Structure formats: structure tokens, C-alpha cells
Amino acid sequence: MPHDLSQQQHYLRAALEQEKKPTGFLLGAGAPMSIKVGGKQLIPGLEDLTANVKGALKKDESDALSTLISDLPPADGKNLESILNYVRALAALPGTSDVRGIPMETFAILDREICRIIRQQVDQTLPKAHSAYLSLALWIGAVQRLSPIQVFTTNYDLLLEQALERQKVTYFDGFMGSREPVFDLQAIEEDVLPARWTLLWKLHGSINWSHDNAGNVVRRHPDATDERSALIYPSNLKYDQSRRLPYLAMMDRLKAFLKRPGAILVSAGFSFRDQHINEMVEQSLRANPTASVHALLHGKLDGYAEAVRLASGLPNLTLAAADSAVVGTVVGKWANTVDADGEASIEQLSSLGHFEAFGEFLQGLTGELPMKDDDPDE
Q: Would strands 209-211 and 217-219 be described as parallel, antiparallel, or unpaired?
């Protein structure tokens, strides 16, 4: 059954223009990958980042990592988060004996060095040129709403924070304080913030999260000298509750948001490869049929098998890819996107799955251009 692309875009526009329902965004790795400087991605994708980390390690560390990667399935060996999870799991083993000929202390060193290199690679300045990040921040600050906009992201970078600050959008990310803000679970769970505040929840941590000497989770500049690993990627370790706490709290925010009556979540750049988030979305949408998720997918639908599986059983999960969609559990091509030769007509394909195109869509809703650092009123 074909789907009407213009109708779906109209539904999305109407959802984002209303001011009463709880509204949120889920940004995945595709968001920062859409920004290019000099023809190159500002922040590398996960596979490129993995390769860059391997190349930047010292020889003995690189040799140890290569030995460990040989234990993993090929796909996991190219996935930095899977590698980091494995390193941390081995570090948690009891005893002091070598593992695969690797001294136990090497695992802590690898954890720290991998996170240090990630910080260097990911700590980038948002370009002054107009971008989807600035358009999103502009849209958030343009309209008064009854409840705060909530933004959930799996990205470790600080691009969204920079965009919100440039657009003078006040936000809360779970930390309290000034010099070294401390993660405050009570403030997250109990405080009610004014609707003009934006809530920013980093589901996989951030390059500027770490532990202080007392074990508290703090936010500090990524360039700060710190012997501890950055708190990125919620590894499944249960032994270290201080490491797990921020991630559990952030996931709880996603769950609480999707429980709200009429909640609308728009995802961009999210591939539905994170099973923890998938399970949270599926459980929440089944429990709350008034909530809805509109997923904008980059490229063709056949690249998102897990997302299609979920949407095929959830009428309140809509997928919109370049060539096809899943609407009301029905998988179908976009209507009028195939020419006489059976080839897709590029002009009619949905492009909102590309984060920059989605930024232009948001900009069309506000009718304004985002501010840049060199604007006169900055």
C-alpha cells in the first residue's frame, strides 16, 4: 500500500506547530555526521572513529586491543562501543591474573586511552555557518509552550550544547553548579522547571562527563587534565553503580517522557540499532497508545530491519525513509515516486531523514535564520 509523502509531512508539521502536547527529539549518530567542513565530516562516524582510535594508540596498547578484538564478532570489532564494553567487562573480572596474555592493569589503561582519543576526535566547534543544530535551537526558542522541550541524544559531542547557547536557549542537563557541575539525581527526578527551559538528556554520556576524586559524576571541560575515563557509552557493568547511575537516570527520562499523555517524539539520525532504547520505546508505546514516535530515516527503508520490525507492530511508531514508510503498521512505498522504468524519482524522495534537510524543515516553521557567533546582537 503506497503512502502519501505530503500528507505525512503535513502531519509532522502539525505535530511540531502545536504548543500543548509534550514534544521531544531523539538525535542519533546521523545528526553530527551530517555536518561537513571542507568536504569532510566534522565528527567521524562510529566505524571511522573506531579506526582513528586504533591508529592513535601506542604500540603496546594497540597490540593488546588487536588481541581483544580477535575475540569479538567482526561487526563488533568495528564498533567502538562494543570494544569499550568488552574492555570494561574484562577489567571487572576478579583476580590479578593476565587475560589472553594481557596484564589486568592494561584494561584500565585502554579504557582511559580510548576515551581520551574519543575526546580529541569528538570535541569539535560547531561551525558558524547555518546548520540543523542551530535551526533546532532556534525552533525550540521560538515558541512558548506548556511544557519544556526534551532532547534525547546518543551522541557524546557538545554540538547541541553549543547551538542552544548560541541561540540563548536555557537548558538543564542533569548537572548542578558552576565550576565543576555535579550530577544531581534529585533535581532530575523531582524538580519541575519552567516551560521555557529545554531538557537535554545524553543517553550515552558525554565527553565532558567524568568522576571527581570523591567518585561524584561531574561535568568539566573535555580538555581538563583527568586520569579517569570519560563517562561515555553505558556499558552493561553492574559492579560500578557510580558509572551506571547517569545512564539509568537518562533512560528513565525517556521512559517518563513517553508515558505522558499525547507525547510526541521525533527521531533524526537514529538507526534503531541500540537495543536498550528500542526496548524502552517499544514498551512505552505499547503502554501509552496516546504517545507517538515519528522516525526520520536517512536512506532507504531496507537498511533499517529492526526499525521496520518494531513499527510493523506499533501503530504509534511511524517510519519515514527516502523511498518508503511504515505508517499505522503498514509498510509501503511513497506514492508517485517511481517513474515509467521503475526507478525512484530523486526529486520526490523524502529527504527529511538527512539532519540538514530536517533543519531546513524546522527553519521553514519559524521563518527565521539562526544567529551566528558574528551576528551584531551576539
A: antiparallel
For residues 335-352, give the mean pLDDT: 57
Q: Note whether 108 and 231 are same-domain residues.
A: no
Number of structural domains found in the chain? 2
Give the pLDDT mean for 180-191: 87
CA distance 75 to 87: 16
Looking at the structure, do residues 69 and 205 belong to the same domain, yes or no? Answer: no
Cα separation, 22 vs 147, in Å, equals: 6
- Give 198's Cβ-side CA count (13 Å radius): 25
Quote the distance between the C-alpha of residue 236 and its chain's center. Answer: 18
Q: Assess whether 105 and 204 both reside in one domain.
A: no
Clarify whether residues 236 and 326 are in a common domain. yes
Residue 295 contacts residue 318 (beta carbons within 8 Å): yes
CA distance 142 to 211: 36
Tell me, yes or no, whether 372 lies in a domain: no
pTM higher than the cut 0.85: yes
Whether residues 32 and 94 share a domain: the answer is no
**Across the strands, what pairs with 199?**
150, 172
